[in-house]
Design brief:
mainly alpha; Arc Repressor Mutant, subunit A; 3-stranded antiparallel β-sheet; 12 helices; 7 strands; globular
């Protein structure tokens, strides 16, 4: 599978805003929301209209995901830094609602309070710009950078469990998969950080944009560990690497 999460976090702000990025190596455009790819030179038909790959990527995002804004706004608070109230207000601002309309919609408050929220969010925007500039200057320094493994965008809790460098991750895979990365897992670790590394490695045995039955998931996980496959399935969902329907009839990757 392609690591959509890694692509998402390596994308520029402009690419995240548009919802896709260009994969120059494979000559494709990649949707940063679902991972679907569109190859340059291929013509894509849709409702009687023919589109080249770049334009059809935009059409796909509009049809399949409606709004990049709403997708980003719905990300975990750890990624946006926004409270539920701020998210609600930003949705209203995006829709072009007036302060009076927002007060009525929320059933209370005052227009001055809404204006204060607008001001606070603008200040947050300024802080974000300065922070981005600081981090870009930091990354430009000629010293060895410690790269951390990507965090799933759908992770429900983002904490020190995901504080794993790529070097640490490689060491853990070698330790727990002594037969090689495609071999069997010796044991499922108890320490949280190690669980994340193992789970992130395991999902490479699944395909993106594909739904699996519970039986199919179990069969794949049995190639990892013949006894702990139920535990692995549970943790894949708990840690945000996989999701499922409420009745358990379908499973899919979320990264």
């Amino acid at each position: 599978m392609s690591d959509l999460t890694e692509l998402f976090w390596s994308a520029s702000v402009e690419e995240i805003k548009q919802g896709y990025m260009e994969d120059q190596t494979n000559e494709q455009y990649v949707c940063l929301i679902c991972g679907e790819r569109f190859t340059k030179g291929v013509i894509y038909p849709d409702n009687g209209v023919l589109y080249e790959a770049h334009k059809y990527t935009q059409v796909h995002i509009e049809q399949a995901h409606s709004s990049v804004f709403e997708y980003l706004l719905d990300l975990n608070k750890k990624f946006t830094g926004l409270t539920d109230l701020q998210k609600t207000l930003l949705q209203f601002f995006y829709e072009g609602r007036s302060d009076n309309d927002i007060v009525k919609e929320m059933g209370g408050g005052s227009t001055s309070t809404i204006r204060n929220h607008r001001f606070t969010l603008r200040e947050k925007e300024k802080q974000a710009k300065v922070f981005l500039a600081i981090m870009e200057l930091l990354d430009s320094r000629p010293h060895k950078k410690q790269k951390f493994i990507p965090i799933p965008k759908t992770a429900t809790v983002v904490d020190e469990r995901f504080n794993i460098t790529e070097e640490e991750n490689s060491d853990l895979i070698r330790r727990y998969f002594p037969e090689g990365p495609d071999g069997h897992l010796t044991e499922f670790p108890k320490k949280e950080k190690r669980k994340v590394a193992i789970l992130r490695h395991i999902i490479q045995r699944f395909e993106t944009n594909k739904q699996y039955t519970e039986k199919e998931v179990n069969e794949i996980l049995k190639t990892v560990h013949t006894e702990e496959y139920v535990t692995l399935r549970r943790y894949l969902i708990e840690y945000g690497f996989m999701d499922r329907k409420d009745d358990g009839s379908a499973y899919w990757l979320t990264v």
